[in-house]
Amino acid sequence: MATPLGGAEFAPAQTYLNTSACGLLPRRTVDAVTALAEENAAGRPDGAGSFEVVATARERFARLAGVHPDRVALGGSVTVHVALIAASLPPGAEVLFAQGDFSSVITPFTVRGDLKARFVPLEELAGAVRPGTALVAFSAAQSADGRVADLAAVREAAAAHGARTLLDASQSAGWLPLDAGAYDYTVAGGYKYLLCPRGASFLTVSEEAQESLVPVHAGWVAGEDLWTSTYGPVERLATSARRYDEPQSFFAYHGAERSLALLEEIGIEAIHAHGTALAARFRAGLADLGHEPVDPGAAASVIVAVPGLGGRQADLARAGVLAGARAGNLRVGFHLYNSAADVDRALDVLSS
Questions:
Q1: 3-state class (DSSP) for residue 17
Q2: pLDDT per residue over 213-254, tens digit each?
Q3: Are strands 164-168 and 324-326 parallel, antiparallel or unpaired?
């Protein structure tokens, strides 16, 4: 039987299958955040937080995403990252979305009122790219049901028509290998499968895309030299994607550095194999119970959604199994701290 990969880093009090909503913090992450809080409470110099730790977190995410750290910007939410990209488009630009994708991928564009938003089913996304499409904005894995987009097909179609790509990896980074360099932009919230505290999020910008992306919220942390950028207009913005940084929450990033270190140590490929095997076991068990989960689409997914079973979320919770309910679906997500026993426990509750 599959056993958890995280070892002593995790000790959930219940069967936890809700990583798509919020991942569990590793012990080392909790210790790092606690240590910084204690330093701050005591008035010690290190209690202000460390830019060196933030830089290490950037480097760790860059390695997980397959890009140079110069291509990574740090912030506090995916919505702000997406809004930055939305602000860069000229009036009338067409943006192509998958129907039902997460609102943070869509709304920063639609609230402008002067862009052309077009929506198609996820499985038709690549075929819907056309001349005049400026940007394809989509999630690698859908929040509502875990379906995985045909990433290669969308990239190829976008390249063929000169469209840029924005990939939201919030539901996939941490279990699905990410090649961020294959997209103009990627965004990822850190508090799901990346196991970071809330307040850590990541944006990657290709070198070519950086040429036209205006850092509209640039502050002193976006300066090439932070300590000469604190007063008056920033005279020289960072030449790297750090020019798109938001001021970081040190508590979030002190924790994120430790969480990302754990993911590096275990390896995304091992986490992918572990999580998708558990998801396959769950899907097979659901079929035995007469339930048909959503087809994951282009690739295996650690997220399993079952239409019509969203109402069973409360039953599972009463039995000590935490899952999600989205768009009428019962939604579970398997990660490195889950085991085959977790799968069987959830199936046992659903069988009653």
A1: coil
A2: 999 999 999 999 988 899 999 999 999 999 999 999 999 999
A3: unpaired
